[in-house]
Specification:
It is built from eight helices and 17 strands. Strands 8, 9, 10, 11, 12, 13, 14, 15 and 16 form a nine-stranded mixed β-sheet that branches. Strands 1, 2, 3, 4, 5, 6, 7 and 17 form an eight-stranded antiparallel β-sheet that branches. The protein is of the alpha+beta class and about 300 residues long. A hairpin with a 2-residue loop joins β4 and β5.
């Protein structure tokens, strides 16, 4: 049974977890009208730091803007709420969930409602299971495709978008796989249920473009920049499904998944069937940000006690 934290930030104030409630007729519960972020904080030699906090909360407001949701708080206020809820719960290494949604108001699709906002924080280990960062997972291509362009904006991190991810992830678990991979409506590769994809060919990273019905992940962006900084070539391009079976290495990435190697797809071994040298190098660069091995030249580590 999950152990919930004691405190949560809700509509401008710290409350006890059990007091942060909403009405069953809230707009978001019926129509999926919510936006959110997932953010991790890490212990570093200089104390706890939140990874790309401002970039994440800037995207939160951008997602709200796409869905015409007037946000009652700005980036600085939500950043402060993230820090406050971590301090109240005595957390250093944690997962944060800023969240905004259309609350109780009118009942139609286009109804004007208040926008409620919350920030939760809790301890969370590897998203896809213990040991997967070291050994990798077995994945499958899902029978469910991502939404077509100009239907639902994939560039918004909106709650309703994750109905697609739920179908992909639950199908994969039901079939005994660690995670699912979705194709776009074109039949070309898109992303995982909630993660971006990187394939390795001859030492170069290849990743699907934002036009492939995927969220432009902040971890994805971080990997691209870290890789190019050390001379690893990065290519953003359309990729067909069969390249999953032909690549030398393959991994998923995201705030929750961090950098998770994939050792097989659809029962077909990827490369040597274990994390390869490029994947391991990317893991070293990424996790090195938090233990001091990788210089934080971009100012991505935002201290808890700023």
């Amino acid at each position: 049974m999950m152990q919930y934290p004691e405190w949560i930030w809700h509509n401008g104030a710290i409350k006890r977890w059990e007091e942060a409630t909403t009405h069953v007729m809230s707009h978001a519960l019926h129509y999926g009208s919510s936006v959110f972020e997932g953010i991790r904080s890490y212990e570093t030699p200089d104390g706890p730091a939140i990874f790309r906090l401002t970039d994440h909360n800037t995207r939160l407001l951008a997602s709200a803007r796409i869905y015409d949701m007037p946000m009652p708080y700005g980036v600085a206020e939500i950043n402060a709420a993230c820090r406050e809820v971590m301090r109240c719960n005595g957390l250093g290494k944690a997962y944060l969930r800023p969240f905004a949604f259309r609350g109780l108001g009118g009942f139609g699709l286009s109804a004007d409602t208040p926008v409620d906002t919350s920030v939760a924080a809790w301890e969370m280990g590897p998203y896809l299971g213990a040991g997967v960062l070291e050994t990798g997972i077995d994945a499958c291509v899902s029978s469910w495709q991502r939404f077509a362009p100009n239907t639902i904006p994939a560039g918004a991190k909106a709650g309703g978008n994750y109905l697609s991810g739920q179908l992909v992830a639950r199908e994969a678990r039901r079939l005994g796989f660690g995670e699912g991979i979705a194709l776009a409506s074109t039949g070309l590769l898109s992303e995982g249920a909630g993660e971006n994809l990187f394939l390795v060919f001859e030492g170069a990273l290849h990743t699907t473009p934002v036009s492939a019905a995927l969220l432009n992940g902040i971890t994805r962006n971080s990997i691209i920049r870290l890789a190019r900084d050390v001379g690893i070539e990065v290519v953003e391009r359309d990729l067909p499904r069969e390249y999953l079976y032909l690549c030398d290495e393959l991994f998923m990435c995201g705030t929750a998944a961090e950098i998770t190697p994939i050792r097989s797809v659809d029962g077909r071994q990827v490369g040597a069937g274990k994390p390869g040298p490029v994947t391991q190098r990317i893991q070293e660069l990424f996790f090195g940000l938090f233990d001091g091995r990788t210089p934080d030249k971009y100012g991505w580590l935002e201290p808890l006690d700023a």
